[in-house]
Design a protein that fits this description.
alpha/beta; about 15% strand
């Protein structure tokens, strides 16, 4: 595995939960450095098969030379269509390790990190024409306020949006440092948390992450076999809430319709009552693990 990529979070726990059939077909929705994929392959016999998805060009450098493995150069929102194209209607399990890799954070020109100056990019798919620079320089003030509030959970989002609109009236905002300099009024002891939330909001909007996650989860209801597993590792509350609700009742909003006995039909059943988190030792070894939460569900009989 490329050392510039992160060590996979909850590696053993996630693959233990996922692989219930050594001869089965599995999907790693977020290939990245290939850590989870390699562990999955180590659990499969000669008849097993693993499909991995990743739209990031850098991920191709971590290709695994194994006849049981195929890397799909696509966003995992196209999970079902890509499996069907390959003649696969159902799989034994799907794993998704969401969020941004350490490699992406540590590459200044990708613009994901507040630690480096670089272009305001944040694209997971580098061939896309839509970047954080587009949002900062072209979004209406009310739309900027909306994404800061919804995706960054930032208080005072209207003022933040107003400050950006004022700054860009003088000149285009092109770099991480130029954006950070607009918010010099944020107290130093709150600056890092604020910027992390701001960048999270921009990244989610650039990559349409909430819609992508909903589409993937919904498709899992079709592509995972009865008794198959869905394992999702998330890194912020917005993602975790969607995953929790979908695993519980198959919906993202509202409540499911119940029968006269108060029961409802859902595609999955959660396999644990509490979210699974990394140990203190893993968090000490891997800072990315600090905010990780893992949920596991089993596909109900249709």
């Amino acid at each position: 595995m490329n050392s510039s990529y992160h060590n996979p979070v909850l590696l053993k726990e996630s693959v233990d939960a996922l692989v219930v059939n050594p001869s089965g077909i599995y999907v790693d929705c977020t290939f990245g450095g290939g850590g989870h994929s390699r562990e999955i392959l180590s659990r499969l016999d000669e008849n097993g098969k693993l499909f991995a998805f990743d739209q990031d060009e850098d991920a191709k450098r971590n290709m695994i030379d194994d006849p049981r493995f195929e890397l799909v150069d696509q966003n995992f929102r196209y999970l079902k269509n890509n499996l069907r194209f390959r003649g696969v209607k159902q799989v034994d399990g799907v794993l998704a390790d969401l969020g941004v890799s350490s490699h992406q954070f540590d590459t200044p020109e990708r613009g994901f990190s507040i630690r480096f100056d670089g272009d305001l990019d944040m694209r997971m798919n580098s061939s896309s024409n839509f970047s954080a620079r587009t949002i900062i320089n072209k979004y209406e003030e009310e739309d900027l306020a909306r994404i800061f509030y919804e995706y960054g959970e930032l208080k005072g989002s209207r003022r933040l949006a107003s400050e950006i609109v004022k700054a860009r009236a003088n000149q285009k905002i092109k770099t991480v440092e130029e954006l950070k300099n607009i918010f010099s009024f944020i107290p130093k002891n709150k600056e890092n948390k604020f910027l992390a939330q701001l960048f999270q909001a921009l990244r989610i909007e650039v990559n349409d992450e909430m819609a992508v996650l909903k589409e993937m989860l919904t498709q899992c209801g079709d592509v995972i076999k009865p008794e198959g597993r869905l394992v999702v590792i998330s890194y912020h509350s917005l993602e975790d809430r969607l995953v929790k609700r979908y695993m519980k009742n198959g919906m993202f909003d509202g409540e499911p319709e119940r029968d006269i006995y108060g029961n409802w039909s859902a595609p999955f059943k959660p396999l644990q009552s509490k979210v699974i988190v990394p140990t203190n030792d893993e968090i000490n070894d891997n800072s990315r693990a600090r905010s990780a939460k893992m949920r596991i569900a089993v596909r109900n009989e249709k």
